[in-house]
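Colleagues,

For the teaching module next term, I've prepared a clean inverse folding example: a structure given as tokens, and then the sequence designed for it. I'd like students to try predicting residues themselves before seeing the answer, so please don't circulate the second half yet.
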């Protein structure tokens, strides 16, 4: 019964998929601005690195160059000149021609994920997702109530192979995966590409972190591998590639793109039509100016230097304060460190609430599991905070672990006495 309302006056209930929804993202964004809170939770860039002067100049140039066209409704596929620029950019990156018919502009990668759900998932169908999975993808597809098959890069897994016979697509983040930070090797990328070709299914390659190569080089994307084999004027393969400016320039632009077979671009355009009809021509016009002025390449060395220092600071603090309880690997790129508890009773879902009481936030592993069962893992972000803040955040997290384990021991003692 709704509060303050007689039961017979109650309004209709909401859709049942909301019962299984994830509120971690909403809470992370809300509490991140709380006074005194240190957030190691979100996948957020460092705001002090945003190219403010370049954005100001680009805004003025865009208004002079495009006038009222930058303030109008526009094509559903996106600002035409930016669409052409992304096609040129992607052609240079993969070494094969990408045409504008291969490109759809979106409001960040999340809109692309939402559209993929709309065009490829009938309610209850099976989809295959790299495990653990980016929680934004799980959120985007939850209303379609799919059945998930986990993919752990084990190509001998019979459950995975059987699911590939009936699934429409496989979802993966091969470059510095969210949440684990893992860089998938070229051999595994080629094996996955061979599988989707054999099974004749789509492969969704989500790639927001390719610009964040802190050590070494990630190598060709799966899209590049497939396009090189085809050598077509217009790409027509099974890879649906998602890119974004959110990590390299600023997330506030909400500029992302899909590169794929013209058939899938047409379907996604119809799905986008049902969502926002048209993106922000203004944001896309400003983004075009920044791309043409090569602002990303001018700032990348400083960005990587800052993030490398912060990654090292976080891992050093983890060794000092959390090494007795968790293990992790130092990522070669991206934004995250993935921690695994050494004790089976160290429940990070429960720890999440205790940590908030200690004014520190992280993202519990259960948010990246469609079944919500990963209770001994967590994701920490290092890009948002300065080294001294990361140190203090880990120190607080260690105190939260001690508090959580103390409460657990106290509860076990009471049970034993009873």
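(Answer key — instructors only)
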């Amino acid at each position: 019964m709704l509060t303050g309302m007689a039961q017979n006056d109650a309004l209709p209930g909401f859709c049942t998929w909301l019962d299984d929804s994830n509120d971690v993202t909403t809470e992370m964004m809300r509490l991140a601005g709380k006074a005194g809170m240190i957030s190691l939770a979100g996948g957020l860039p460092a705001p002090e690195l945003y190219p403010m002067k370049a954005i100001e100049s680009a805004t003025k140039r865009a208004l002079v160059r495009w006038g009222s066209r930058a303030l109008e409704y526009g094509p559903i596929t996106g600002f035409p000149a930016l669409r052409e620029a992304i096609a040129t950019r992607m052609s240079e990156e993969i070494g094969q021609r990408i045409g504008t018919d291969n490109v759809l502009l979106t409001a960040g990668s999340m809109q692309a994920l939402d559209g993929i759900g709309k065009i490829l998932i009938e309610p209850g169908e099976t989809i295959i997702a790299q495990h653990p999975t980016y929680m934004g993808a799980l959120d985007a597809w939850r209303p379609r109530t799919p059945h998930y098959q986990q993919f752990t890069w084990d190509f001998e897994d019979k459950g995975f192979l059987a699911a590939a016979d009936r699934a429409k697509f496989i979802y993966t983040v091969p470059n510095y995966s969210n949440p684990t930070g893992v860089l998938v090797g070229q051999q595994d990328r080629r094996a996955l590409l061979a599988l989707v070709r054999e099974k004749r299914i789509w492969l969704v390659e989500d790639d927001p972190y390719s610009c964040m190569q802190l050590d070494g080089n990630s190598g060709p994307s799966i899209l590049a591998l497939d396009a090189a084999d085809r050598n077509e004027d217009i790409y027509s393969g099974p890879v649906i590639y998602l890119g974004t400016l959110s990590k390299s320039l600023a997330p506030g632009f909400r500029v992302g793109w899909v590169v794929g077979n013209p058939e899938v671009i047409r379907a996604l355009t119809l799905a986008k039509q049902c969502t926002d009809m048209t993106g922000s021509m203004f944001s896309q016009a400003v983004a075009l100016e920044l791309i043409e002025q090569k602002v990303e390449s001018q700032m990348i060395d400083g960005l990587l230097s800052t993030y490398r220092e912060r990654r090292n600071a976080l891992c050093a603090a983890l060794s000092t304060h959390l090494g007795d309880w968790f293990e992790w690997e130092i990522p070669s790129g991206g934004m995250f460190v993935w921690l695994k508890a050494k004790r089976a009773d160290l429940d990070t879902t429960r720890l999440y609430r205790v940590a908030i009481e200690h004014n520190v936030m992280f993202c519990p592993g259960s948010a990246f599991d469609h079944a919500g069962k990963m209770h001994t893992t967590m994701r920490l972000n290092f890009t948002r905070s300065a080294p001294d803040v990361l140190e203090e955040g880990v120190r607080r997290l260690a105190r939260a672990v001690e508090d959580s384990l103390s409460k657990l021991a106290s509860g076990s003692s009471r049970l034993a006495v009873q």
